[in-house]
Amino acid sequence: MEDALGVEGKGHRRDGVEQGLHGAAFWGRHRPGGASAWCRPGHPSRGLLRIKGMSAPQPTPDRRWQWSNVLWTQLAWFAAVLGAAHGVPAWGTLPALAVLLWHLRRAPRPRSEAVLMLLAAGLGTFADTLVLHQGVLAFASGQWSAALPPPWMSALWAVFATSLNVTLRWLHGRPLLAAALGAVAGPLAFLSGARLGAAQLLEPGVAMALLSLQWALVLPVLALCARRLDGVAAPAPSAGTTRTP
Question: Is 224 exposed, middle or buried (0-12, 13-18, 19+ CB in 10 A)?
Fold first, then answer.
């Protein structure tokens, strides 16, 4: 009798499991959107599917932010360069400061981006100082000391840092590509500023070669720092089973 009851109980449990599976399949087929709707963002049950050790992907900046970054960094560059060329470097630096504040206000983790800006300004100023001491270039105005590049150059390095996790985040993990891009784009940007009157290349060939080497070394380092300090991507949820509202 006990064996019979045990077999019968197992049969009932098996039937109950099968009915539950059939019921889930039925509701998955006939509810709006099908079973996949349970996994869609914003569904109230989606948080129950998060498993320990798994995290949601970190979204990258949207197109609107990327285009805004391109626009504001270019405006800051032109303002600083033209301000230096016309002998008013302080006024030309104000738009750069505005861009930095705008970026920090928008970044999900502004402290990380602020650290990246300071690193870029410090490393860039140090590299510019080494090139300046070779006597191959001169700045039009704004230098507080003949031994140091002007502050508006440091401000432009900080502005450049706002692009490292936005429009230039595709350089993350690609040091050779970053070096190649820096070796070409960096000297060309400086040459454009010199043609607008912000600087003078005393020995153009040597200056361009040194600037190319400078950027080939600096940009991969900045890209690595940007990847480590990324304050633009949304923070990933902490490990563990959590329920989202």
Answer: middle
CA dihedral 91, 94, 95, 101 (to 10 degrees): 180
Write the pLDDT tens digit of every residue in 61-76.
778 889 999 999 999 9
HEC profile of the chain: CHHHHHHHHHHHHHHHHHHHHHHHHHHHHHCCCCHHHHHCCCCCCHHHHCCCCCCCCCCCCCHHHHHHHHHHHHHHHHHHHHHHHCCCHHHHHHHHHHHHHHHHHHCCCHHHHHHHHHHHHHHHHHHHHHHHCCCCEEECCCCCCCCCCCHHHHHHHHHHHCCCCCCCHHHCCCHHHHHHHHHHHHHHHHHHHHHCCCEEECCHHHHHHHHHHHHHHHHHHHHHHHHHHCCCCCCCCCCCCCCCC
Output the CA angle 40-44-50, nearest 5 degrees: 70
Give me the torsion for CA of 14, 20, 21, 24, rounded to 10°.
Answer: 180
Specify the pLDDT at position 245.
45
Question: Which regions in the chain score pLDDT beneath 50?
Answer: 1-14, 16-57, 240-245
